[in-house]
User: Fold these one by one.
Assistant:
Number 1:
Amino acid sequence: MSAYRPDIDGLRAVAVLSVVLYHLDPHWVPGGFVGVDVFFVISGFLITRLVVEEVDAGSFTFVHFYIRRIRRIFPALLVMLCLVVAAALLILTPMEMDEFGRTLRYASAQASNILFQRQVPYFSDGFDNSPLLHTWSLAVEEQFYLIWPPLILGLYKLSGKRWRVVALVMALIVAASLGTSEYLVGASPQLAFYSLPSRLWEIGLGGMLSVQALDVKGRAVKELTGIVGLAAVGFSVLAVSSESFPGLGAAIPCAGVALLIVAGSDSRILVSRLLRFRYLVFIGLISYSLYLWHWPIIALFKRFMAEPELGPTAGAAIFMVSMILATLSWKYVERPFRRTRKLSWEGYAIVSLPGRPGEARVYHAVFAGMSGVVMLVSAAVWLQRDGEGISRAITGLREDPGMIYAPPEVIDCEEKGDRPRYLESEQEMRRRCRFEPRAESGHPAAVGGEALVIGDSHAGHYAKGLLEWFSARGVPARLLWESGCVPLFDFPQGDDAREKELCARYIHAVRQLLGEERRIKYVVLAARWDAHVDAEGFRESLKSTIRVLAASGRQVVVMGQIPKFPFHPANNFVRGDVLLSRMLGVGLRPQDLALSDVESDLGRQRAVIKGLIAGSDGAQYFDPLKYLCRNGECDSVRDGKMLYYDQDHLNINGTEYVGRFLDDTFSRLVAGPAGNMASVLVTELGE
């Protein structure tokens, strides 16, 4: 058995402190997220070294390996999950509990990375604040160790017990995974960050070091190797960008860890002595528990206090509480389960723990662990039920017909499956997506005039109010929208090949319709402009689109973007149902969005678009902030009704509310001669 290396625990301390500080405030250590990558390399080295030693000794068995993993990972994890469930029941709103129940199921099954890769951008503003977001890395590790030991043993036997051959195959696997990671960074960033194929190379790199150790000779060379390794890790923690990560962006910190592992075996060198500093080693010993505890505390605190960011005082307090809980978890949960005298397999695992003389304490580890998982999953299913009886507040929200994103007739004009509606026949499109004015309308119909609403998902969420406004004035209206596609001519868009093709076809269909239907005098463009305003060619494309439409007899009106909330606005409606609030007899204040924050967030794109409109003939601007914000705050609730579907989409209530104020800008559209009735409404509502 290899000797204990305190320098590796020191390296673990560097990793966990980087992650914790990054989560407390990303501005402190902008690249602190690479601490997870450091953990991956260390884990690969230590676990693979253990497997290799046991294989060489002829004592390796899969049963003992996986029982050891269960003892290492699950006791502390299950304790954390159980206590976080209890805290969540006290702190989270019923709607947040729905979400929490889903993540709890996946975390209990060591599959949370699969859930998060479909829905949670790790580098989004304020992360997701899901209390179990951090379990994605544990899931990646456990999935890795389901395949790694069988792979090592199989390669060892097939190669005639030659570790050099095993190391060579490992190197090929690591290279293939790194290539996959680099490809996915561009093709699917979410998948690149959370998936095992994209992360396998990091753990595998550590494994390679234990199979084929690098022999660094000479004290001076080792000193240089250690310094370069520490510099690589330090640079990454302080300066690595989240863009294009992991991929090749993770190569620097991972290579640095590899160099530190190689050089750190010599306790005489400077870097090794630094990493063996006893307080650093202690933090390394509790690093797993510290990683487990710090994030749920941060996330639940932010949720309860309705604070998207932590101040210095709160950050320091959370750090101290995390350290205390981590120390208790390490001493009373991790160590007892890991320091065993006896391990046997007779239907289930029996772990005998050291105790006082004459005292035998027997833990049924696997049985207890499985029972804990079953209870957690059962709790998750209960938490995630349809909502019947969860609370009057959430049930009331779900029964409000105005809470949905858009009515069916609006949804029907967006892509369905692999065949967008706009690719159907002209007759079918007319039937589905052409809306005749109300017969009882008292407004005179515009002579030969029709309206067209186009854009991304914000054309969809804003469509009902716009369609009703035109209908009330006797103007037939068409609706043509596609999620993620900005309604600008000659503007490259789309994150991958499919989206690029979809948006290109969509814009082609829009231009074709505008060219063929001369009756269209009112054109509504809706998009999330802030996501594109800094893209190359955006300004030229917006200006060109306005100019082309104006040249064809159509005016332009640009509507400003609605405020984007960093949390789900519906939680404002149900914060009174938080159990801890009721127990303490205090009401939680609503999560307000300051107008100054909105202006900081959206001010740039508003200024750009207003500037472009000011220089265009016939263009106008509608600013919804005038109606959604007052007294320095932006509301998600008006007249007792929720206005938002999610953080940056209106629901039906919202579009009807904003629709009350369309007259301020839109009334001029039907006031002039028929020949001057062309207008483009650029509706900037966050996507």
Number 2:
Amino acid sequence: MSPGIKNQRLINRSYGRTHRSLPVSQSSATLPLVSTAVSEGLIWDRVIRAEEGLVPPDVARFLLELDFPEDDLNRLEDLNTRANEGLLTASEREELEHYIHVGDVLSLLHSKARRSLARRG
């Protein structure tokens, strides 16, 4: 398994992709994070159009190499732990949302790149 897939699974497992809120252990006073993944995903779908095979193979392979650096993965793990303990500050919650957003876009780019390579054979 490539590091990118493993790291994206860490993000997905840690924060969930459907409900887009902080972990359940947060108090009920915590407001859910705004979900933009669906509309942004549809926009990226139209922009990239990988199923049409428009992503050149070298670009697709480059996209598959994009990943979070180790320092960011360590920070993400720290934020996840603090979120599960209900200890995130407002700035940490915002930082976590940024990681989630980047992870969502990275996941979409990886998916598009894989589909484009598959279509080209």
Number 3:
Amino acid sequence: MSLRCFATARLSARPSAFLPLLGVSVLRDPLPASPGRLLPGRQLAWGGVLAACLLAGTFSATPVWAKENAASAGSSPAASQARMQRDMQYLAADRLRGRGPETAGLALAGDYIADAFQAAGLQTELVDGQPFQPFEIDLGGAAGPAERNRVAIRIEGQPPVVAELEKTMRPLSIGHSGQATGPLVFAGYSVTAPQLNYDDYAGVDAEGAVVLLLRKLPGSRSEAPRFDDAEHRQHAYFATKIRRAVEQGARAVLIVNDRDSAAAEAAQVRRQIAAEQERIADLQTSLAEAPEGLEKIRARWRQAIATADQQLAALHEELAVAEGGLLGIDQAAGADGEKAAVPVVSLSRQIADQLLQAATGRGLLATEAWYDEETTPHSFRAETITVTVETALQQATAETANVVGSLPGSGPLGDQTVVIGAHYDHVGMGGYGSLAPGTVAVHNGADDNASGTVVLMELARRLQRRFVASEPPSEGRRRVVFIAFSGEERGLLGSKHYVASPLFPLAETVAMINLDMVGRLRDNELTVYGTGTAAEFDGLLDRLNAEPSFRLLRVRSGYGPSDHQSFYEQQIPVLFFFTGLHNDYHRPSDDFDKIDFGGMTRITDTILQAAVQLATDPQRPTYQATEPGITIRRQLTAFLGIRMAVREPHVVIEAVVPGSPAERGGLAAGDQIIQLGDRRIAQIQDVRDGVRARDPGDQVDFQVRRQEQLQTFSVTLGERP
């Protein structure tokens, strides 16, 4: 789901006691190995090949398990769930590096989906003989030529030092392109906080200087940090630090990453190196065990090993950069797009250490330790050190593609289209779109939106099998187009591109089903947006839900922060299935082990029936306009601990969980709930919604009637078990 397309201040979530808890225990099997598939203009990346391929004497671009998935598409719910687990293991694996637009993992995911579509029997030769509908994504800032991005340092009595692009320096997009020369000023953490009697620029003239500053805040390791409260944390923001330096007359700014962040990033790369080394060992073992007669396959094993060796070498180079703590080019960018009027550079910790040693005899680690012990400024101006900074920034783009497959229609309805879509991109290694600021780690996006993509592929298998096995009705059936969208996290780019350049006429596209974050079913709650976009949709959902009996939460609007909105803006009725926001959204913790595959299987069954109805009903859905304003449904995370009943006209507490927040706050069985916070209570759902809107640790006042007396109790909500 696209963070860019909606603003939600807090993610909350979880229900009060006695609601049913749904969950499936999943064994986390090792990731099935898969070869990459070389396509025109796409990068080849190898994940290994199953030994079964060799023993069978075949080598296929389509992963073996993907073909097995397609072959068993008509089998039991257990088999369907097993297929989706295997698909999820691939799409949410670390080696796909979060499926960000700047990663090779996004193309690998697209290849995997294309293979699944082809193996399922869809028509995929839709765009110049391929399933890929290409477009470009704007990635923001990028460094220009290396000769125009450098930091040259002249220290009296020492040889000159040059910090090189992508080795020991990187320009930051929060600054401007340009060149500046001046004496070095070390400005500590670039903090001016009069209320704390702290000023890194006190007694230091930064006019016309190149200012070197440290990330984060002074005293952050002390037992009582001075800058710990929310009012003063703004001083840690990159934009605030740079603005202070420019106000003091800086011609350029050099930022040094803190030791903890640099160490964490280096540790992440070391883990990737270890995993790659293990993968190479597996490849070498497989090559050694391969039958001698299969020379073509052995040659491909050798090529896979060579490619993996290249990737390993690249990771070692990445490790050296990570140890230096270089920031990402857009990592310092502010949410408001504020830019400094001077060049801004991320400088490696090694070069910063040389500068500080030359100026004071105290290196970087010693300087940081000094600030840890005492939070008094230690800034200085070094006239004996001259620094020249040159930066050249440009816009970067990435090529990506929607992946499209089609089940042809037939008869009088055959020229009409039903679209089923899900986005397969995510936020990569963090940065843009991440809700874990400053974290450089794989954001696997298992729920967002490997879950929707997995359901999309399973629907393709099962719907194709169903249509092939049955005669079409006399009226025929509509074409069903499956689209895995890219670029959703950057603002619904893939779906916008499709509706601007549709492969099938939009005027004959009767409905669109969107799947986004359908992997975390909780309390049997399934939210469906767009129920008001066609006159027939409420009745359709009633029929579809007769057997699965989800607790359907219906939202009439066809607008919202996912790909269905692009279609609804073209006056196409939409249904968007969603299991709710949670606290792992757009964070590294959105991973495979938290997916409810049993719930996903039930949702898949329901959407399959919806697709069949929409594809075969002679009457196309009747478009209706809806209001654009929506609220994204949050899962319940706060725990109260009561069971309720309605005794007209009141909501009454029937029981209180021993030791729960409700009991600790003074609520008791028999209390009539009159008000929760500023919300008047008329039904049980009012209480649930009131708790849903809050987080664990929030304090809320309950007004109750107890023995004909109004009383108010303050309850601190707990975290849901």
Number 4:
Amino acid sequence: MLARTPIDTLALSASALGISERERAALCRVFDMLTCGQLAPQRPCGGDDASLCADGFDMMVWQRQSPCGTVACIAGWANILDRTAFAGVGSAAWIFSLSAPLTRLFMPGPKARRTPCTPRRAAHALYAFLTTGEAEWGTA
């Protein structure tokens, strides 16, 4: 099996991405969580199945915490991992301060949302952003 190259080695510099070093590090950690299966698609909470009560991923939710775990999007998870990363996530002031590439990463347009934003698609978009500076939602 080939060794996986860590994303922080492949990613552009924080300045090239137009974000802080802490934001870059948090996004790299989110990428790792998405690709390692730590963030599953959001599922209903409750019942006897403990797998339903876990941290989840949903691009339609900035951050939501419950007794079952936390559900968040890319920006939300980056902020959970490092509270200084993308501080104010989800607020109007934060949204209007985003660069165009970050807007495309954090808020996929209607065309990209025609297909569910799964963790796999999010990892694809995040990888593209970290290595090229542009999110590519595609259909991964």
